[in-house]
Amino acid sequence: MPFILNIETATKNCSVSIAKNGETIVCKEIAEEGYSHAEKLHVFIEEAIAEAGISVQDLSAIAVSQGPGSYTGLRIGVSAAKGLCFALNIPLIAIDTLQTLASQAKVSNGKIIPMIDARRMEVYSEVFNAGLENERGIEAEVITEESFSGYTDTIYFVGDCAEKCKAVLTKENFVFLEEIKYPSASAMSKISYDKYQKSDTVDVAYFEPYYLKDFIMAPPSKKQ
Fold it and tell me: Could you tell me which residues come within 8 angstroms of residue 71 by beta carbon, excluding any fewer than 6 positions away?
């Protein structure tokens, strides 16, 4: 019976879960305006393992959100996951952040479009059908009134972009599920278990997060 530790740090939600046979048994998470991943992640991992009544040696694999998302958040999550995999000699599983987000929408028809804020009117998005089959790959795109206009069935938007996108995406078949704002490690449990059963893992030494866009460091502000 595999126990998998799931780590999700791609957005403002610092989230950790322990899954047993693909079912979440413990989830620890917090979403704050300021990123608290560096302080919270290792605490959550220790607490989740303790609450699950297991030891770190009982873990069969570790799954981590691979992006897209926050550069810093992804680095923190991937670094923690790789360190544990090295120490425990267990496999690393990479999970598409947008797939995790889409899986939190429980709908029976239409399309699910998860979106993660990429500043201004740009988002990271992907398209899934109601059965969570991928229908369009990940893109970084600027949202306009014509975005997704080619879809005639119901479109369910999830993610942290509702506030800025609702005024632009106004077609009658567009529905914003605003309660689903951030991807959660709890939603990773089934995905990571399916990948574990298929031995769909990544190389611990060489795996890097999927940033989608290059990280650009802003120049330091000049003191007056």
Answer: 211, 215
